[in-house]
Amino acid sequence: MTLLDIEGLNVSYASRAGPIRAVISADLKIEAGQTLGLVGESGCGKSTLGKAILRILPDTATVTGSIRFAGLDLVTAEEPALRKIRGRNASLIFQDPMTRLDPLMTVRHHFLELIRAHEPDADEDDAMKRTRRVLTAVRIPPDRLDQFPHEFSGGMRQRIMIALALVFNPTLLVADEPTTSLDVIVEAQILQLLDSIKNEFEMGVLLITHNLGLIAEYAEEMAVMYAGHIAERGPVRDVFKEPLHPYTKGLLDSVIDLETRELHSIPGQPPDLLQPPSGCPFHPRCPSAMPVCTGAFPPTTRPRRDRTVACYLYPG
């Protein structure tokens, strides 16, 4: 069952120098119980796409296209309808829990504030029962309810953020770099936790990350984003085995493993979104660039079953 259906999504930011097109004609689908990994270099539009789903972008952002979720088009939905969905049906895990948790509020008050935002008449005892249940699920001792964020380690603060996102058992979770700045052991624990909760509640997850290893371990599908465009999408196993877009191949070649003998990188850097190159935005860095690549952006084709790619190399 399709849980989230994004079609032709465009997000641009107004600036004094002109519009910054952060997401361009993006198409994505997430099924119930599926993890879709979204990867790409910094500045490619991943976080903007994730925040656009929940409509929590700044006032300078303009959003067009379609985001179908829970029977609504979230692009055109009114704010009262969006407030009913955010935090209840769809939740977001932010990158840095220390900047998202209020240092003047205890864990108890974080949860009470969230629950009463959706259920103003909620009884505190009932709210705390739900809070203890979800804290236990993320392995935070419930007897620490009256402590402040600075009294927890980075990994525990991230678990509290996950618990806040899961308190209403949402059907969709947007995890934006959920393990940033954590050590690899805590990172693995948190991703295993998210994976088990996803399977238990048939939750759809959009996992935004730079870490291709996490995608290989925890996602079933992946989408590769570059300069606001979805360059390639397909099953994780197939994309890792046979990357189609030159950018995807460059990212995978940059991954270090036990057989690595020399380091590889993609030359250059992502383009300025104020003045992106003409045609395919990757052509200045692409080893397979052709004259046609500098004209119009390549159409998205389906050269393999369950695979899409925006590149003039396909279908041939």
UniProtKB/TrEMBL annotation:
It catalyses: Ni(2+)(out) + ATP + H2O = Ni(2+)(in) + ADP + phosphate + H(+). It is found in: Cell membrane. One of its GO terms (biological process) is peptide transport. SUPFAM superfamilies: P-loop containing nucleoside triphosphate hydrolases. One of its GO terms (cellular component) is plasma membrane. Residues 6-252 form the ABC transporter domain. Its EC number is 7.2.2.11. Pfam families: ABC_tran (PF00005), oligo_HPY (PF08352). The keyword Cell inner membrane does not apply. NCBIfam families: oligo_HPY. Belongs to the ABC transporter superfamily. This is Nickel import system ATP-binding protein NikD. It comes from Eiseniibacteriota bacterium.
